């Protein structure tokens, strides 16, 4: 599905650039004047309330009005009282840093069974999160539905659901409130729009998952410009390595919490091969249950070195 998705996205980009129009205009007219943004990956700091407060404040000062974090450290299946208090303390610090108006999204990466997740939801409620994402793993929509029906906080999931038929179960069981298809994993631009339309029929909002770089951000912006039931678009670009945005220029900047609707042809971005050549691809292992995983420094080795070793 990843291979199909990126080929499909490339075809849209070729057509848009050939016709000198943004991809979204090949499909329809935008339904909004701007696109709400949230920042992810900003909390590469020590897991203390003071450090998370400082880092969250920098996100707001950058111009964001929404952000997301996973405060649960290495918890898996259960979380003890000290760890739970620490996680809630981080959320409290972030809410204080961003103020009462900015939106706060919580990620759980499928860490917990339903009853633990429901308890955590109750502890998070005073900080008014806009959603709790993957409180349980996405493999069993019945468990997601159990959590969703047992709490008042909106539940989000979908980044690890990769076909339209698998999304159907989330819809029919009303397992989530916010659907999170990843445009690079579920079939591409047209398929993501179909999933969003299907979610609308079930009264659900859509917030496309986006863990990639500027190209996947560009493709996501083309889609959400057309989605009436859109919630918010996340990305990592502004708090990632400084060279990443320079390697793929063209995306609108986040201003006062919003992207502008893209106007450049195709996906709206171009690629600078010179910058990319300076940063060759590396083989990466990212373990969400390892200590200090949130620093996202999980490089293992160069791809060429790994391939030569295998040979």
User: What is the total number of structural domains?
Assistant: 2
SSE order: HHEHEHEHEHEHEHEHEHEHEEH
User: In the CATH hierarchy, what is the superfamily of the largest domain?
Assistant: Enolase-like C-terminal domain
Structural class: alpha/beta
Count of separate DSSP helical elements: 12
Q: Measured on Cα atoms, how large is the radius of gyration? A: 19 Å
Main sheet record: 6 strands, parallel
Distance between the termini: 27 Å
Second rung of CATH, namely the architecture of the largest domain: Alpha-Beta Barrel
The averaged pLDDT comes out at 93
CATH topology of the largest domain: TIM Barrel
Side by side, the strands of the main sheet go 2-3-4-5-6-7
Beta fraction: 5-15%
CATH class of the largest domain: Alpha Beta
The poorly predicted ranges are: none
- Characterize the overall form: globular
| Approximate helicity band | 40-55%
How many distinct beta strands? 11
Question: Would you mind describing this structure in some detail?
Answer:
With about 300 residues, this protein is α/β, with parallel strands linked by helices. It contains twelve helices and eleven strands. The protein has helices at about 1-20, 25, 50-60, 80-100, 115-125, 140-150, 165-170, 190-200, 215-225, 245, 275, 305-310; strands spanning about 35-40, 65-70, 105, 130-135, 155, 180, 205, 235, 260, 280-285, 300. Strands 2-3-4-5-6-7 form a six-stranded parallel beta sheet, covered by helices on one side. It has a three-stranded mixed beta sheet with strand order 8-1-9, with helices on one face. Strands 10-11 form a two-stranded antiparallel ribbon. The longest helix is centred in the N-terminal third of the chain and has 18 residues, at about 1-20. The mean pLDDT is about 95.
